[in-house]
Specification:
alpha+beta; Nucleoside Triphosphate Pyrophosphohydrolase; Arc Repressor Mutant, subunit A; 3-stranded antiparallel sheet; 5 helices
Length: about 270
């Protein structure tokens, strides 16, 4: 039985007369924050691309692109990642949807942001419409974000201020960035960075993203450094090992931890 609406129309009749142009529609992009660890596992790295066209031409930004009408946001993120950096087959998870009016000077654009994690810092270069691509050192504290690449002579710095927000009965704090350096990230990409780091810090205790930031085999000191780099604080050795003991298993071999002064230790792999 075909149900009718208050105007006496069936669904087929309603759709036949429906005009999508009656409502303004936004463009939608997929933007990706890509994180890895530096060679000695002491801090995080972020991959940025240098924009080759307006708007924000010449500025460093997160890789991203418009979602096509025949693909999901996840497929668009994976495609854009490959087109702009050459990376593929890595951890990719949705973070948040950014909808602030005026966030893109071209038109009404919403962004579905993704977090990507890589176990090794593969060499990258700019593809598609990007002028360059590079790994940057990332330092994220309660008071500042520092993004730097000595070879490119680039330093991007934001001061962070905590502000309280209310959502129903819940009060929570979030970071509000203020640019300090002359250079800054394009669009609202610093806000995507903040949300991604917050989400990763919240989830890393009970999810397994840390294992996407180490090689297939690793030592426990290496793995602990990953957790500490993400969380921005040291962890007690015993507490850390109790926390991850059910998630790892020995390979039967030993390896030397990659950081300076690292000793030969038992080699482990992720118990997936």
């Amino acid at each position: 039985m075909n149900k009718k609406n208050k105007d006496g129309l069936t669904e087929k009749e309603f759709l036949a007369g429906y005009n999508a142009g009656d409502y303004k529609r936004p463009s939608v992009t997929a933007d990706i924050l890509i994180l890895g660890m530096n060679e000695d596992y002491s801090s995080l790295k972020i991959l940025l691309i240098k924009r080759g066209d307006h708007p924000f031409i010449g500025c460093w930004a997160l890789p991203g692109g418009f979602i096509k009408d025949n693909e999901t946001a996840h497929k668009a993120a994976a495609r854009t990642l490959k087109e702009e950096t050459g990376l593929s087959g890595i951890y990719l998870d949705q973070i948040y949807t950014f909808t602030k009016p005026g966030r893109d000077p071209r038109t009404w654009v919403m962004s579905i942001a993704y977090l990507a994690l890589v176990p090794a810092l593969d060499e990258v270069k700019g593809y598609d419409d990007t002028d360059d691509a590079a790994w940057f050192d990332l330092r994220f504290t309660d008071s500042a974000i520092e993004i730097s690449n000595e070879e490119k002579d680039v330093q991007i710095v934001y001061d962070l201020k905590k502000e309280e927000f209310v959502n129903g009965a819940i009060r929570y704090e979030n970071y509000v960035p203020k640019p300090v350096s002359k250079e800054r990230l394009a669009f609202d990409h610093v806000e995507i960075l903040i949300e991604a780091i917050k989400r990763l810090r919240e989830q890393i205790y009970y999810n397994d993203q840390a294992f996407c930031l180490v090689e297939k085999t690793f030592t426990l000191p290496e793995l602990q450094r990953v957790y500490e780099a993400v969380l921005g604080k040291p962890l007690y050795k015993k507490s850390f090992r109790d926390m991850i003991s059910a998630k790892v298993e020995e390979t039967g071999s030993e390896k030397t931890s990659r950081f300076k002064g690292g000793r030969r230790s038992t080699e482990y792999t992720f118990r997936s």
